[in-house]
Every structure is written in structure tokens, then in C-alpha cells.
């Protein structure tokens, strides 16, 4: 109802603003022709008096009367024209008035048919309460923020909102959300690792002492937490401890599953460090920190030879224990990194044979090798 009252007032105001100037007429204005006619009559009377006194000749008097008569006739024609124009102007004003009144009436009628005058208003609070599937990311975040403003002790709410802030690159907000989640719902490796990432991201990627403390806290709760391991290695690289960072990343490659989202990040980090991505989870299968430090002092040829020796050792180990799934995948990947496609293909064939061509492991090896560009020999 309030909508219609406001709409009616606005429509009335707009219509009056147009109609009032059109309704104005020429009330109170005396016609200019009346004054001119009186002047011409006075001139005729004066002419008659001058003729009677002999001040003007009869011929001249007749010419003067004729001229005054012509002027009076012209004045009458002008008056008739003005009357016609006035009638036309009134008609125009009437037509314009009808048009101005028709516009709101027509628009109201169309809105009543095509619009939704009975649809209730939907303020922000109601929009935030609708089905999440029908909401945008901004609306979902706003809804969560409104909920937490009213319920600041809801640790679960902070836990849900923190990674969203992180993805939206609202890093200071993410730090606050993670700290609140930890304070209210307790420590977890995921929360501490998320907190460390938020702190580092807010600092432009620098692994500060606060970020390092968070990552180390995550590893105490879960030593295999990939995010914490990766960023701690980044911190080592930032401190100039490149050999230790490379060793940590190489170790991660040996522990990550083939479909881990962190595998690409580790491989990219190793590429930027100028090191081949050779998996290593134990000293027997790859270099440890001391070996990697020694490798930094080698020439490229010697370093390559050392890596090939370690890969050959892994190959020998798998010949003795062919039921090592992760070992076969590390061997295939190592041969690919070394550019030895034939050896990688051979390793794939031996891995499939070790578990059987129809086994789930064989399908896993084939898919993994295909992702590296290696296909089984026909």
C-alpha cells in the first residue's frame, strides 16, 4: 500500500509540473487593438474640426479620412486573426493536458498487468536468508559476516569463512578468521597451515616468523601436511638455504600421491631452483640434505651422473621388491625427468606385469604414465 501512495504522490507532482504552465492564459491582459481604435477615432474628430475651421482643404481631408479608414480596417483584421490564434492555442493546451494525464494512467495500467505490484520488498537481510544455491559468492560472504557479527563465538562459522577469505585474497580478514577459529574450536593442522598461508600472503609471500610458527605447529599435529611442508621449504629458500629447500621439496615428491594438488607446485619450485624433480623419500631412493648440499658443489655433468646413479638404485630396488606401488611411480617419473622415455616406458611395462594387466594398480600406473606423456608399448 505504501508503494502506491508514494507512486501516486510522485505522479501527481510530475503531472502538475507540466499542466500548470499549459493552463496559464491571457487573463487580465487588455487587447492592444482597443487603444489603437480610440486613437483613430480621435484623429477623425480632430480632422472634422480642422476642416470646419478651414485649416485643411476638403480634398486633403478626404485623403486623410481614407487613410485612417484603411488603418481601422487593418486593425479589425488583426483582431480577428488574434481571436483565431487564441482558439487554436486553447485547443493545443487541451490536447497537451489530455496527453499528460494519459501517460500516468496508461503506465499504471500496464504495470498492474505486467508488473508485480503485490511482490513484497526484499531487503538485504531477506536476500541473505535465501537458498545458498541461489546466492552469489558476495551474498554468501555477507550472510556469513552478518551471522558472525551477531554470533562472534561461533568457531565453526569462522572456520568456514577463513578459507573463503583466503581464496578471495582478503588476507588480513583470513588471518583474523583463522585465529578466531583456533581460539574457539582449538588447534588443527589444517587451521594452523591455513593461518600460516594467510600470514605469508598478507606479507607478500614472505615466510615471516609468525607464519613459520604456524606451519611448524601444523606439522606437530600432522607431519605429512603438504601445505606446511611446502611453505617451510619456501622459507628455507628465502633464507638462502637452497640445498635444504630442494631436499625438502624432493622428499615431498616421494611422499605426495600422484593426484595431489601440491605436486605441480613442488615441481615448479624445483624448476625455479634449477633442480630436476626426482622423488626421494629415503636416502636409498634419493638424496638427503647432505647429499643435495654436496650436489650443489658439483659440475652439471657430475650432478646428472649422481642423480642417474640414484635412479638406477631405485630401479634395482624395485627388481627385488616389485610390489612397491609408489616406487614404480617414482621410477617412471624420474626417467621422464631425465629425458629417458624408453626406460620410462619399460618401467611402466614392468610395473603393470608385477601387479597384473587387469589389476587396479595397473590402471593407476597407466593413467599416471599417460599424464607424463608415456604410453605402454603395443
UniProtKB/TrEMBL annotation:
Domain Cytochrome c-type biogenesis protein H TPR, residue spans: 134-261
Main localization, broad class: other
TPR repeat ranges per the UniProt record: 155-188
The UniProt record lists the keyword Calcium: no
GO cellular component: cell envelope; plasma membrane
Location(s) in or outside the cell: Cell envelope
PROSITE patterns xrefs: TPR
PANTHER family for the chain: CYTOCHROME C-TYPE BIOGENESIS PROTEIN CCMH (PTHR47870), CYTOCHROME C-TYPE BIOGENESIS PROTEIN CYCH (PTHR47870:SF4)
Name under which the protein is recorded: C-type cytochrome biogenesis protein CcmI
Source species of the chain: Mesorhizobium hawassense
Gene: ccmI
